[in-house]
Design brief:
Elements: H1 45-56, E1 67-71, H2 72-87, E2 92-101, E3 107-121, E4 124-133, E5 149-151, H3 171-174, H4 186-201, E6 212-216, H5 217-229, E7 233-242, E8 255-263, E9 267-268, E10 288-289, E11 293-295
Antiparallel strand pairs: 1-5, 1-7, 2-3, 2-6, 3-4, 6-11, 7-8, 8-9, 8-10
Helix pairs in contact: 2-5
């Protein structure tokens, strides 16, 4: 399953390289130096590698009710940067979210831009491969806000942790397109988070069973557009939940990112937005976004897995 999230602002400059140089087994152009590379949320390639590998060696979740929140301006800056790069003839197609751990072993998120090289994925020839892209330069990347604000206990406004919170009516009442590729209802998101928390506290399975999740560019466009047109909106909250349906041949209930827009001092809100078509795989995203490509099992050219 998947969920997404990201970004905003107005960016300044970008150094672009010819990303059409491709390696058959590496998502990073060999001509690029890691010291010049960064994630979409301002974490250097070197630091991201340390944080993600720290998670890969210990996939436990230390704080079950952890979230990360990105302010509205950062969401805008991220989305803007992706389009600036795309206009430089790099085939930017989305964002991959990795799990990581900080220096004191707390879970966090690293957001990485991706581009399509046109090659179909080996296990699904109807899909393209999404290679990580790190060669970024924009002012917002140097600010503390770029990394987001992590919370490791319930905070006011994170409504999906509250079992007494009653979700607004689902799509049949509000006009949301429940068949939208990236849409999940508030009710389903609440159930996914409850299932994840139950597994950790009662079943004692305290490990996260995915390492990353990919979302197409249109998801971030829709989130950014919603935040920009809502004067009360202030950002985006990222939760972790567990899918309610087993995935793949192994029938594992996969964990997933759940992204929710916020307003009025970081309070979740749920509504339909972005009913316009955007790109081939991205239309009808409403309220809460889900359904990306998870690793495992979609791990083609993923940098860390």
């Amino acid at each position: 399953m998947k969920k997404v999230l990201l970004i905003a602002g107005i960016l300044l400059s970008i150094l672009s390289c010819n990303s059409n140089k491709k390696s058959s087994d590496n998502s990073i152009d060999a001509s690029l130096q890691p010291s010049l590379m960064t994630s979409l949320n301002g974490i250097s390639y070197a630091d991201a590698s340390i944080m993600i590998n720290r998670f890969l060696h210990n996939k436990t979740i230390n704080y079950s009710q952890a979230t990360i929140w990105f302010k509205k301006s950062i969401i805008n800056s991220m989305d803007s940067l992706l389009h600036v790069i795309k206009n430089e003839n790099v085939a930017i197609d989305g964002v991959r979210l990795y799990f990581g751990k900080d220096s004191i072993n707390r879970n966090t998120v690293i957001a990485v831009a991706t581009f399509s090289d046109g090659y179909p994925a080996p296990n699904d020839t109807s899909e393209l491969i999404h290679r990580d892209f790190f060669y970024l330069n924009a002012h917002y990347l140097t600010t503390p806000d770029a990394r987001g604000t992590a919370n490791y206990s319930p905070v006011q406004g994170a409504l999906l942790f509250n079992n007494n919170f009653v979700c607004p009516p689902d799509s049949t009442s509000t006009g949301c397109d429940s068949a939208g590729l990236h849409y999940i209802s508030c009710t389903k998101a609440q159930s996914m988070i409850s299932t994840f928390l139950n597994s950790i506290t009662n079943v004692k399975k305290d490990t996260i069973n995915i390492t990353s999740e990919w979302f197409d560019l249109g998801v971030f466009d829709d989130i950014n557009n919603e935040l920009k047109k809502n004067n009360k909106a202030d950002g985006l909250r990222v939760y972790v939940g567990r899918d309610l349906t087993p995935q793949g041949s192994t029938k594992i209930f996969r964990d997933a990112f759940i992204l929710v827009t916020t307003e009025d001092n970081r309070t979740d809100y749920y509504k339909c937005f972005a009913l316009h078509p955007v790109q081939v795989r991205s239309w009808g995203h409403h309220g809460i976004d889900d359904n990306g490509e998870q690793c495992p099992t979609n791990c083609n050219v993923v940098t860390w897995k």
